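Reopening this one. Same input as before:
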Amino acid sequence: MRLVLGSAGRDHWAPLSTLALAGGGLKMGQVVGESTAKAEVPKTTPITPQDLMATVFHVLGLPQELHYKDPSGRPTPMVTGGKVITELV
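Same output, byte for byte:
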């Protein structure tokens, strides 16, 4: 076995992950999107982590423009470019 620094983690088929959600006011009992036959990339409906954040903010009634202050005091947006996953709301 050979350890290669800088390639740890999910370095194979990284563009695709599965995620299960439950409750929280979301529409349950469905699959959103589809992968290719080898499950290496999305075939339909690619969803980003920012889309998930936008959806959570939407369900919680939080503004999409919400910022937090980083340790230097600079306001940093919590959602950048994410879109609500309409199939879940």
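So the earlier flakiness isn't reproducible anymore. For the record, The CA atoms of residues 5 and 11 lie 12 Å apart.
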